[in-house]
Amino acid sequence: MSDLALSVEDLTVAYQSEPVLQDLSFGVPTGSLVGIIGPNGAGKSTLLKACLGLVPIDSGEVRFFGAAHRDMRHRVAYVPQRESVDWDFPIRAVDVVAMGLYRQIGWFWPVRRRHLRAARAALERMGILEFADRQISQLSGGQQQRVFLARALVQDADLYLMDEPFSAVDASTEQSVVEILRAIQAAGKTAIVIHHDLQTVREYFDRVLLLNRRLIASGTVGDVFTEPNLRRAYGGRLVHVDRPAMAVGWGDS
How far apart are CA 197 and CA 90, in angstroms? Predict the structure, then answer.
């Protein structure tokens, strides 16, 4: 068994001949909480999608636990950006979560009581069981995000890829996400999370992947999350990083 939950070698992705990601190589040890950070347009979401085969890659190799994704789908869960989902689709929250069990259920078999029990248990873990039978369009942004996290949790995966789970959520939902991440790690599992708030990187993660189309650095927070590396990634927009408080300033200089 590989000691890497995810390994990427020489990954390049281009849209209409324009490089989005260039020659990325890195490894993510099992049991890690990894924050992917970088400026807007750095290719963070594209990286996750390329690893999952959701966008084509021009070159390179991606391995999950030492094998191709098609052989490890059952061990990998994905939480997309909330903005990428059609929340007006007429479906209950509990049914969205049950979709995470499709490998157990089968595409053409009915959802059984045990599946709904598992889905409701995941919603309860996220603190929104009371909304199980509500249409997803009737939920707040934070509640919708919790539904998607519950759908990932019910898969009982070994690796979780999350695209901005903290985006546009309230403080309560953010704390719930943090608790879930810590529980994932405590169970010996791995989470890779696209994250924007530089002030919470040290608090939430133990490893960082710093990206701006090319890999700036990858490794432990202490090694990677440094002012020189952040300046390389963010350019002149980064004014200062104060280590004790992790205050991050932005400007034109």
Answer: 33
Structural tokens at position 149: 């996290």
DSSP secondary structure string for all residues of 135-153 = BGGGS-HHHHHHHHHHHHH
- Dist CA 76 CA 72 (whole Å): 7
pTM: 0.86
The pLDDT value given to residue 161? 96
Determine the 3-state secondary structure of 56 from DSSP: coil
- pLDDT (tens digit per residue) in 61-111: 999 999 999 899 889 999 888 766 666 778 899 988 988 876 655 554 556
* Partners of 61 in beta bridges: 9
CA–CA dist 197, 44 (Å, integer): 14
CA 43/CA 136 separation, integer angstroms: 29
* 86 Cβ neighbours under 8 A, 6+ residues apart: none
* CA–CA distance, 8 with 27 (Å, rounded to integer): 6
